[in-house]
């Protein structure tokens, strides 16, 4: 995830956003690439797994095009294992991959169907994903795969409860799932809620550090995991009035 983005930056002062409603037990985190969820989201994941909630990761690609010095046939397996390692640090045991081609994703009906199938099968209360907007924040563009996945997730979340959309999934044994409460997007330039992740900084940093091959291939001037994750979680502090916070844009389903 070389385009690192932006939570909304709020001026200092009293908290300006409400806390995230955490009345859920099952969470499905969906991202385009290995390491996308480690740019801040892992702090929330660690909070939730420590509270006994079930969190599952679903990656659209294996990130095989993400390391310039490593051919895709080597990078894909390496990054898959790094994602499993990073997920384990924050208490996630189940990491699944859809095997789309890295770097050339589009918000197709096939992608929507595959995500819809996963939602019906796993029956999450909430889905966490990244923004589909063109920008993380002013002056910082969002990569194409991120946009494709964000759009497909928003659509698939609605599809999951409608038996007349992708009826072939019913034939496969996946009945509609109407228990999905919301899609939580982070990062987003339009944050609506905050989650206090104070005390979860170190596991989040370690989760990103687990992506060793990817991190080692980044430019020398690219921020290191500790600097990067800390800055992301500190961006939400003013909006939350806590030491570290993750900001979400919440879409009720």
Report on the structure:
There is one protein chain. This protein has 253 residues and is of the alpha/beta class. The protein has one domain: Rossmann fold. 36% of the residues lie in helices and 16% in strands. The protein contains nine helices and nine strands. The strands form two sheets. The chain has a seven-stranded mixed sheet with strand order 3-2-1-4-7-9-8, with helices on both faces. Helix 2 links the parallel strand 2 and strand 3 (95-97). Helix 2 (72-89) packs antiparallel against helix 6. The longest helix has 18 residues, at 72-89. It is globular and about 50 Å long. The model is unreliable at 2-14 (pLDDT under 50).
The percent of residues in helical segments reads: 25-40%
In the CATH scheme, what's the topology name? Rossmann fold
Unreliable residue stretches:
2-14
Please tell me how large the radius of gyration is.
17 Å
Summed up, the helix count is 9
How are strands sequenced across the largest beta sheet? Answer: 3-2-1-4-7-9-8
CATH architecture: 3-Layer(aba) Sandwich
CATH superfamily: LmbE-like
Average of pLDDT: 92
| Overall SS class | alpha/beta
